[in-house]
Specification:
Elements (H helix, E strand, L loop, with lengths): L14 H4 L16 E5 L11 E5 L13 H13 L4 E6 L10 H18 L3 H4 E9 L9 H19 L7 E7 L7 H8 L3 E2 L6 H14 L7
Parallel strand pairs: 1-2, 2-3, 3-4, 4-5, 5-6
Helix pairs in contact: 2-3, 3-5, 5-6
């Protein structure tokens, strides 16, 4: 999903809609007054001077789903080495779309992180890390919302451990979306875990879940 998101702790664009409190970060705010813009592999990145580039990575090559992981990593590394604030998005698809297992997705993220860390000396300064686009609906290849949640919880636990051991600012984000009635707040919080939550505010259900998550955790969220 195309995203226009603020970096952690910045003024949230959709504040009036979501009513999510937006305290500013200080030392944790590596790119003040910036926002994020997606760019699919092969397309020209936005040239507006103030944005963080989000390299789109749907499927990351699992089961023939676009895009190729080597291409995603190459674009990520090139932008980091050019001194551009960069985040890499991976759209985690279910087995109905991209045949594979949870372990396959763990391997995708591990390979991406290893390539970036080895090939971009300044990754700790310019790479915000990995953004996982995780959605509960059948269009993402899931047989049920509970199946989606179980996969995401397993994957995110591994990604959290992986990113906790990376350099500098690199972290992981969950760009979550759930249809009305799919996930309750307990499941939503379990899926987002200790990530930087970046929920997709596309319906009233997501407004409610985002507010509840913010009230429960007390930490800043991104809004996409």
């Amino acid at each position: 999903m195309q995203s226009r998101a603020l970096w952690i702790g910045l003024v949230v664009v959709l504040f009036a809609l979501t009513q999510v409190p937006t305290p500013r970060a200080s030392a944790q705010d590596p790119f003040p007054d910036s926002f994020m813009r997606n760019a699919a592999p092969g397309s020209s990145p936005p040239n507006d001077g103030g944005s963080v580039l989000v390299v789109e990575g749907q499927g990351a090559g699992i089961g023939g789903c676009p895009y190729d992981l080597n291409t995603i990593a190459y674009i990520t590394i090139s932008n980091i080495n050019a001194g551009r604030p960069t985040v890499t998005e991976i759209s985690v698809q279910g087995p109905g779309n991209c045949p594979g297992t949870v372990q396959d997705w763990k391997n995708v993220v591990l390979e991406l992180v290893t390539n970036v860390e080895n090939s971009a000396p300044n990754a700790g300064t310019w790479w915000g890390g990995v953004m996982l686009d995780e959605e509960s609906e059948t269009g993402f290849g899931w047989s049920s919302p509970s199946e989606a949640a179980a996969w995401y919880e397993d994957l995110n636990a591994a990604v959290q451990t992986l990113m906790d051991n990376t350099r500098g600012i690199s972290r992981y984000y969950t760009e979550s979306f759930t249809g009305i009635g799919d996930w309750d707040i307990d499941t939503f919080q379990s899926v987002t875990r200790s990530s930087i939550a970046a929920p997709q505010i596309a319906n009233s259900n997501m407004v409610s879940l985002t507010n509840q998550l913010r009230q429960r955790t007390g930490v800043p969220v991104l809004v996409t």
